[in-house]
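Researcher: I'm comparing several assemblies side by side, and this is the next one on my list. It has 230 residues spread over two chains. Same procedure as the others: predict the full complex and return the structure.
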Amino acid sequence: ILNVEQSPQSLHVQEGDSTNFTCSFPSSNFYALHWYRWETAKSPEALFVMTLNGDEKKKGRISATLNTKEGYSYLYIKGSQPEDSATYLCAFITNAGKSTFGDGTTLTVKP
Amino acid sequence: GAVVSQHPSRVICKSGTSVKIECRSLDFQATTMFWYRQFPKQSLMLMATSNEGSKATYEQGVEKDKFLINHASLTLSTLTVTSAHPEDSSFYICSASLGGGPAGTDTQYFGPGTRLTVL
């Protein structure tokens, strides 16, 4: 069983705050890391697919970085808005094609 | 674009019956579809990967005779939970990708999930 951990488990911030959370994964057999946003009662939405050490990707106010050597990825949200409230999941993919999801970080943004 | 639907969204059945869940890619052709299960307070766990026209590849510990997967067309995959028991009660969710390989770098588009309760 591959250990993929996300921290914190939950996070409450005020509207306008910037925030970040972590996905930790094994540093061996890395192939790709996916980030998803999952709003309540909706389908998980793909945010980023990251493959290269040092990768940095951005989508609007959300960005992510990747460090495959030490086995972590950070997701940043700048100027959080209530509509950013969701559970953010990461999925670690090995070079054998096996995918393991983290438990997610649930973000609540208060107006 | 890239919308995936699942039906039904919620199903309650008696122990011993079989339940079929459909996963459809509405506006694209999905070479590969994935089925996941999520127990309460746990993460999504991949059950199987299916490519159109071929047998599904099941993850270790997933009984292929209990969870029958059919991917007969590029827009439809079905998961049938056969002889369901209360321990099969879970949230089942599918995803689809355009690629033909394992869950690697292809973007996955998820359905909204199906909540199965077996009495």
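Model: For your comparison table: The radius of gyration of chain B is 13 Å.
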